[in-house]
């Protein structure tokens, strides 16, 4: 991606997978010789919450003002933080596809109604609450966003709106991070249909689509089909970051592929190689190649800790701070845009947009959002559409105070 695109990127979307942390098919891929079964109340793989924490704080690190520690200037490293969005995409692509595959394996079919009910109750309440706060602040004159930008965020086409329109108001920046939510929502519409109607040929179908979108992104830039500034936010330009992880999830159902990935991901080899490749390509080669490396490398990074959760990195990602922050990462993603912002116009919130108050305000709002809005509504969604796969019934049956 072009660097200017990344200047507006925020994490997308951890945020979307908090109620479905794992699937049995993924859990079964862990290397038996290095994995010890752990009793778990919720039955999910906690390393994924750890990755969400890394993703969302990468975005915050990127959006923060220039950071220096004594003589050390970290601004050069801050530019890498925008890749947190693609890390969220990698997690979502793997987990959403794995969960749908497991449901079909267990019950012979995929319930589209159940899937979309749970998705709506997971994603929309917190997003609507955030947009309502933006509207209230606008009504009192604290900020000045435009209605078209806010409506495009509400109705999940913020990415296309941003790519097609110049910023009408600097305060439209407060909703610009909804571009990544829009991409994920469009992915949720496409993937179940692919799994249902392309069931017997899903691997070649996903492979062909992934290759197509890999080719399309640099080709569209070369032909100048879109305005280059925000064109990478378009769904057709970003979808490969979700399709490739979904393809890996399908391939993991094959024992030979699972065994191969388990072996090559030992000792966090894939993580080290991916990080080195990203730094080299970002510095020496260019945005398009870096985007391709991230698209391929991030899903393998996530899988490496899922397959080897007892490695040092897996244990770190499963520590309490990483797990807790990962669970509320969607709320953090939503609210950080209000307090970590670079280009907004005059705002009555300026006193909350400087360190360390911006971080404190973000965490307070995120925690309140998670426990007051997200968690109760997730449980309601699970009551209306009970999950078909094991390990997720707790949201539908447990006490709100648990």
Cross-sheet strand order for the largest sheet: 1-2
Distance between the ends? 43 Å
Give the overall pLDDT as a whole number. 82
What general form does the structure show? globular
If helices are DSSP runs of H or I spanning 4 or more residues, what is the number of helices?
20
Order of helices and strands: HHHEEHHHHHHHHHHHHHHHHH
Strand content: under 5%
Uncertain regions spanning at least 5 consecutive residues: 1-43, 391-402
Biggest sheet descriptor: 2 strands, antiparallel
Percentage of helical residues?
A: 55-70%
Q: Which tags fit this structure?
A:
disordered C terminus, 402 residues, disordered N terminus, 20 helices, two-stranded antiparallel sheet, mainly alpha
Précis, in short:
The protein is mainly α.
Structure characterization notes:
The protein has helices at residues 3-6, 24-27, 47-63, 75-78, 84-107, 112-139, 147-154, 158-164, 178-197, 202-222, 235-238, 240-251, 255-264, 269-285, 287-307, 312-317, 320-327, 329-339, 357-384, 394-397; strands at residues 68-69, 72-73. The protein is mainly alpha-helical and 402 residues long. The protein has a two-stranded antiparallel sheet. A hairpin with a 2-residue loop joins β1 and β2 (72-73). It is globular, with a radius of gyration of 20 Å. It has 20 helices and two strands.
